[in-house]
Amino acid sequence: MKQTTEPPRRSKYVYIFNMSEDVWPFIAAISDVKERDNEITENANLVDRELFAMADESDFVFVSPRPIQSDFLQYFQELMNVKNVEVLVPSRHSGQICEDTLTDHAVFHRLVELGKDPSLRISLISYSTTPQFLKLAEHLRRSDAKIYTPESPENEDAWTVNFFGSKSGIRQLGQQSAAEEPDFLVADGLICMGIDDAARIAANKYVKKGGVVLKTNKGHSGAGVLIFRPGDLPAEYSVCEKAICDKLHKDEYWELFPIVIEDFVNVNFAVAGGFPNVEFKIRKSGEIDYLYYCGMRVNKLGIFGGVEINKNIVNDRLETQMIDTGFFIGEKYAAAGYRGYFDVDFIAAKNGKLYVSESNVRRTGGTYAYQMTVELIGDEFMTESYTLSNSNMRLNPGKYSFSGIRSLLEPILFNKKTKEGLVIASANLLHHDQPGLAYVIFGKTKKRAIEIETKMKGLLEVE
User: Fold this and answer.
1) What is the pLDDT confidence band of residue 250, given thresholds at 50, 70 and 90?
2) What is the pTM of this model?
3) Which of 68, 189, 342, 378 is deepest in the core (most CB within 10 A)?
4) DSSP characters for 146-174?
5) Domains plus CATH for the chain?
């Protein structure tokens, strides 16, 4: 009797961009309704940028909180040699896109249909493994959709995302690991609950040391972080305490979540812009892959703006220290059951030390730029190119279109032959009330990358 075998199934990814879900308790606790809505909208505006995180796939499904402009999608596909992208947009946009997908019959049915296709092996992945994402995956399986979640921990290990991705969690891991890994340093500080106690502790630290940093347990893009430098607050304890207390009372999340209070670190901006970073990925097997290191572009308020990727960002000694510390942290995460992307943020101090400031246990604001870089430059990107990105450079007030911006920047757009130039990373931001441009620039050297960025600003007439 002739034996029959099943034909091999084609692998296909379904990517859900759920940035707001990653910090949903924090967003839900923002007291100002307008500010809360703006946070959700700002996150959603970054969705088309995230297409580049999938640049290594030629055919994928993209679940988006908002529609993606057809001309931008075409630009992305042509630039990255992507054959097909199926974009699914739930009709409701609450900020919790996995919940919105569950309640949208058409989108949910399409995911079930894909999961039942015997010719496909569907991998469901997301920006972050959230409770909402795991709930959606469970409902799809209940509907007989065969889906795989290669970048997510199992349900019983999902606690690792919020624990290690929180300010208090990484601090606890650092304190527990001091003897085992001496290079895993965190700034001197402690964790407390309640605004009153936090204000007292912070004021005491500020008066004695001239600076202090307060962090809510899991903020987002600089929100939930207060940096007080020398001269920012009164030197008298009682007045200083009241000033901090008044500041904390402006947002409910300071009362709801643990507060980390740390020494202010004098930053050495000559080292990777002061804020080096390293990113990894833990496979489903538990194997840890090192991806890249970079310098983060961070403003005075501590708000992340982009990355700079190149081998010369740090010297060989710091490179080894960052990667070794990252692997050590990754081993702890993997042993606890975490799977997926994570990074480690450092502060380069003037005393020569590297302090771990936080770890994002998810994809990051640099992941898409890294993936784009690998596809456009190749595996030797750390030495063959200098990459710099900007998540949202403010433009002058006015009306902008993607086609108009593309035409204006045509002289400096990325050239596949020279492997230099600018990539427009988003069209959505152009239509915001405060229009902005997300971009990634590639140059053979840092000087060349900066030259392209300067020329871009001249063409756009921004400072």
Assistant:
1) confident
2) 0.93
3) 342
4) -EE-TTS--GGGTHHHHHHTSHHHHHHHH
5) 10-152 (no CATH), 188-263 (3.30.1490.20), 273-460 (3.30.470.20)
